[in-house]
Amino acid sequence: MSDRQPYKSALSDERWALIEPVIASWKARHPSVSGHQGAYEMREIVNALLYQSRTGCQWDYLPHDLPPVGAVKYYFYKWRDDGTDQTIHDLLRWQVRESRGARPTPAWWCSTPRACTGRRGARRHHRKRRGKKDPGRKRGLGVDVLGLVITVVVLAASAHDNAAGIALLDKVAADTGTVQKALVDQGFKTAVIDHGQKVGIDVEVVERNPATSGFVPQPKRWVVEQVNGITMLHRRLVRDYEHRPASAESRVYWAISDRMARMLTATSTPTWRGA
Prior knowledge:
Blueprint: H1 13-29, H2 42-55, H3 69-82, H4 84-99, E1 108-117, E2 127-128, E3 135-143, E4 149-156, H5 161-175, E5 181-184, H6 190-199, E6 202-205, H7 222-231, H8 245-264
Parallel strand pairs: 1-5, 5-6
Antiparallel strand pairs: 1-3, 2-3, 3-4
Helix pairs in contact: 1-4, 1-8, 2-3, 2-8, 4-8, 5-6
GO molecular function, one term: transposase activity
Organism: Streptomyces rapamycinicus (strain ATCC 29253 / DSM 41530 / NRRL 5491 / AYB-994) (Streptomyces hygroscopicus (strain ATCC 29253))
Protein name: Transposase
């Protein structure tokens, strides 16, 4: 790591120690054609990704004392496409659950779709929500009772909530094999419940009490909204700036990995109100 003053988003030695084994293993399996180890430290590549995640800056606005944009992009796309970002995320989730006395794999999950306004010009993968003028996407999260993300699905905003729910059920069933129950909101319909039966997951719709008025957190399922609030600390996720849905999903994994690494090292997350 360079001698410069680290950014607030930069990895501490303790947090890097949690991620380094996965990165080092990946690097060993992907040697350069010429045989050299690379001109940039892997820790600095991850620091650049976390800096962009927290600040929301464009690629070309990454600080000059971080690795070049081309190098950071290269690793972001590589790790996105081969699942390294999710591997890091899943390993950290396993450690957090173990540290909390929970089973390494979650017993059940809950999900909710959230619409994200997209950047103008990215028309190929963005669609408009019904009755809305702005293009965007719909982000669905599968979250366990501890508020840890199990999986992420990003679809066009025009997709029905059922499509997000069915995609989440498929990914959770494929990735864990231990989830037995899902709590979802009233946006999901019978199609999601029926699909849950096909993949072995009991889907329960959490109904709102008609006698209440205003905002009332729904039992247990409120943890999903808490996670959505936490992701807003990462400005790259406040809007959907990515060209491909896979990149949007990868941004969530990096943001939550950063949070879990801080949880494991008892490091607080800087807020926007620090000034």
